[in-house]
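chain below, 292 aa
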Amino acid sequence: MAAKTVKRASSSNSVPATPLLRKFVERSPSGGSASPEEAMESLIRDCVRRKRLPEGTRRLDGFLRERKVIAVDGESSLDCDGYIEPMGRAYSDGFRIKLNDSVPPVRRRFTLAHEACHTFFYELVPEIKFRPHTTDEGEERLCNFGAAALLIPIARLRRRAKNLPPSIAALQALASEFEVSLPAMLLRLRAVGLWELELSIWRRLTNGSFAMDRIYGSRYVPWRWVDERDIAIAWGSRSTVFGSSFVLLQRERSGALKFRPVVYEAQRRDDHVLVLWGRGLKRPRTRPSTLF
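prediction:
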């Protein structure tokens, strides 16, 4: 059964163990004592080392060959980023990946890596994967993790990030170098313990107010700005805006308000505003230059 790529990056919420995840970890070379993330990263690392896969675009190409991906087909009518389908009844028969070729190149590249990571589940847990089954959220999350581990090697990332103070500009520079999206880079920086920041996307509503659309690095909750002039400045400006403020959350059942202080950096991108906030973000000594 084909496994579809999750369209939206998930937060770092824990996902309860399922029979598929338990068997995947138990049968991985790292053994049953490893976490699912450790098992996936170990599989990626062993494949890269065994085949001496180079960094950059050629690493992904070599990984696809090693994981028995025989064909990659583009299709603009897909209602998801992509999916993988086995070409037979066994792992050795190989796989075909279908990609939505209407999405940006970095997204297609990440989807390719994500779908190729599903092959580890087909190889290690064939009694589940080669039968009709529902989507396993833990598997999807791990394939996102595996794609990031493949495309953003930890050693190289540490070298590049160690002298870059956290900022939108630094995030953009790293994402461009590794050919991934901003959310993918943010989540990888968090996963390896380099940053403790969250990246959120805000849309301007027809009444002029702003609503959070997505957040990466934490569970989604509908935060609102206490003073929307903070984000409105970023919306009306072509420059990066740095400041401190409060966001609030109203509890649905009790109506109680929860306030959260944030130090943030905000920047408008086309029809939305990117906001980076969290521990470690510091006001730059000089005025941030525009990135446009």
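The first strand starts at residue 3 and ends at 4. The chain has ten helices and ten strands.
thats it, cya
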